[in-house]
């Protein structure tokens, strides 16, 4: 049967049902409070997407320990003090019939010591590419165990705050990615040395979270399947092995962060689309596959579903059009960037979020329209 973007869908392990396959992608936006508590601006932005009929809404990356914070305006889930404010967010999303997922995160060597006042740690010593200066030190095993517990406790807090599940952020060069990457993990113990051992940190976090949530709440994982920009050391075939282990571990979904959902693997440019490799790897397993990247039109969405995705995480198109599902349903072509600041403000973006989006080339127009 042909998959459609507006089909309702059940997350297979938790049994939770979303009204359609569209997910507001987890996105950095820098619009929460300096102390990590969720802001009214962030609640408004996310609620508008639920009101706009996105079946699932994912938060931006939420740090699980205070020393894992990477940017100003980032939400936290590192202590119980965050639970009560977040209930207001989850209640707002649920009012519109959407599910809401908390993305769990630690920056590792990409955390910001100016914000945390802490030293940086990673899988192994990491040095600046140009100066050779030591950026982050290799974490002792005791600290690794503390990180695993921190992810577990953050997942428990998310449930107490009313989230429908959690997503483990293992992509984009952050801490878990640093363990998965051969470029940043030079360990020779249980946590590194072979491709399988580099996966142990992620699998340990997943196992601890599933101990509490499996069969009750959604548990997903986001990975980067290949090198991108300065996120190096990820081999595509090793990512397929990681996916296989995650499918066998019965995650509700695996998000393949491609930046362009219709791209082919850099390693196999003459082969199938990247997402199809993962769909083939999933055969015989219940987990869903989600992906994101440059999906603006209904036709693009349907093509990505045809290639093997089950869920579509929409980022920039959802920023610019909070009611994108309705536009697609009515076969209306959404406007493309650049967008005026007035347009983005009307779509629920605060000034810090608009300023952040100016980092993306040609997304925000230089003159008002």
Automatic annotation (TrEMBL):
Task: Point out the coiled-coil segments of this chain.
Answer: none
Regions crossing the membrane: none
Keyword flag Oxidoreductase: yes
**Record bears the keyword Transcription:** no
Looking up Pfam families in the UniProt record yields: Oxidored_FMN
The alphabetized UniProt keywords are: Flavoprotein, Oxidoreductase
PANTHER family reported in the protein's UniProt record = BINDING OXIDOREDUCTASE, PUTATIVE (AFU_ORTHOLOGUE AFUA_2G08260)-RELATED (PTHR43656)
Q: What is this protein called?
A: 2,4-dienoyl-CoA reductase-like NADH-dependent reductase (Old Yellow Enzyme family)
Which organism does this record belong to? Schleiferia thermophila
Q: Lineage in the entry? A: Bacteria, Pseudomonadati, Bacteroidota, Flavobacteriia, Flavobacteriales
